[in-house]
Design a protein that fits this description.
Radius of gyration: 18 Å
Order of helices and strands: EEEEEEEEHHHEHHEEH
Strand order of the largest sheet: 1-8-3-6
Strand content: 15-25%
Oligomer: single chain
Number of helices: 6
Shape: elongated
Structural class: alpha+beta
Length: about 200
Amino acid sequence: MGKKKTIGQGQKISYPTDKFVLIDTGLVAASYGKKQIIYQLAGKDQFVFQNQLDSHFEAFEYTEYREFQIKDVVVQLEKEKLLDYFLLFLLKKEEKIIQKLVELGAMHVDKRIHYQLNEIFLLVYGCQIEDKQKGVYNFPLWLKMSVFERLVRTSPANFSKKLQPLIQKYILSSHQNPWHINVKLWNTFYKKFCRF
């Protein structure tokens, strides 16, 4: 159920707070503020809704989604005696998003870079980078400096400075699209040089 819609890569949409969407295929980023700071990535079978007045959804890939009026969903869920479970699900999801934002805000920039690269790797490959022993893996095509900077949340100068060691040691290649990562070099680097 729900009205089916599509959004092309790079397009942005904004919703009133009385609607939410369920992603069928693709990937969107929920962002807010003048700098469009990304606070959530949502892919297949994930709900996304506006919880800030100045937030948007931006498609990182061609995305198919369904749009729902919250009041219609509430009526249907009450009828099926599932409303309490659904509200608990949404509450836990929002709690995780807020907890992640607080944790990221307290992290040093090096750790944020490490964390976000692992999150993207998990999204694509279903595991952390450290779970792989060797090999070179591609990141998705949507990962670019401007997007990654918004995920890491720091100034462009600081971001560039902190990313340079990974590039100079051939751990991360960000000069071509798609970016790729050498897992063996990544694991060696973070075991030897970084203590989080």
